[in-house]
Amino acid sequence: MTGPVSVEQSLARRRSVREFALRDLTLEQVSQLAWAAQGITDPASGFRTAPSAGALYPLEVFLVKQDGVFHYLPHGHKLVQMSKADLRASLARAALGQLSLRTAPLDIVITAVYERTKVKYGARAERYVHLEAGHVGQNIQLQAVALGLGSVPIGALDDDAVARVLGLPSGQRPVYIMAVGYAEEPQASA
C-alpha cells in the first residue's frame, strides 16, 4: 500500500493524539501499521522496516483490539490471534491509567526479547534494543499520519502488569505502547 502523504508531510503533521473517535480501523490499516512496525522489506535477507543491531530483531509486536490480541509475524505478514478478549481496559490499567489505551481502536505493544541481542552485544544489548524500539515507534507514528490516523506513544507502564495482561513468556518484556485511531473531532460550541 502506498499512501498519498510524503514522509515530509507525515513529519510535519505528526502530533500526539490522546482522544480517539469511536471508529474502527480497517484490516488494511491495521495490516499497514503492523508492516510499518516490523514488516520485511527484503525477503532474501529478512531485513525489516526498522534497523536492528546485527539484524537480530529482538522486538515482537502485539496488536490489542476490541476483537482480541494479535501477534504480528513479519515472515508471511501474518496476524496470529492470541486471545479473543478485549484487553484494552486491562492494558490501560497496566499502563498506569493511560485512558487513550482504553479508547483507541488499536493499541500496539512492542515487546523485547533482550537475549536475542545480548548474545552478540553483551551489556550494550539493552541500549540497542531501546534504540530499535524508538525506530519502530517512529515508523508507526509516521504511518498513522500517512493513513489519516492519530497516535500517541506511551512509555509509562508497569512492565510486569503489561506482561501479565498479554500473557508474555518469561524473557519477553514490554518496552513501548502506541495507541492508534481516528482523532476525536473537537465539538463545536453553540
What do these coordinates show?
- The chain is of the alpha+beta class and 190 residues long.
- The chain has a single domain, classed as 3-Layer(aba) Sandwich (NADH Oxidase).
- The protein is 36% helix and 24% strand.
- It is built from seven helices and eight strands.
- It has helices spanning 7-13, 27-38, 88-94, 99-103, 114-121, 125-146, 159-166; strands at 40-42, 47-48, 59-65, 68-73, 78-83, 106-112, 150-154, 173-181.
- The strands form two sheets. A six-stranded antiparallel β-sheet has the order 5-4-3-6-8-7, sandwiched between helices. Strands 1-2 form a two-stranded antiparallel ribbon.
- Helix 2 packs antiparallel against helix 6 (125-146) and helix 5 (114-121) packs across helix 6.
- The mean pLDDT is 94.
Summarize the structure.
This protein has 190 residues and is of the alpha+beta class.
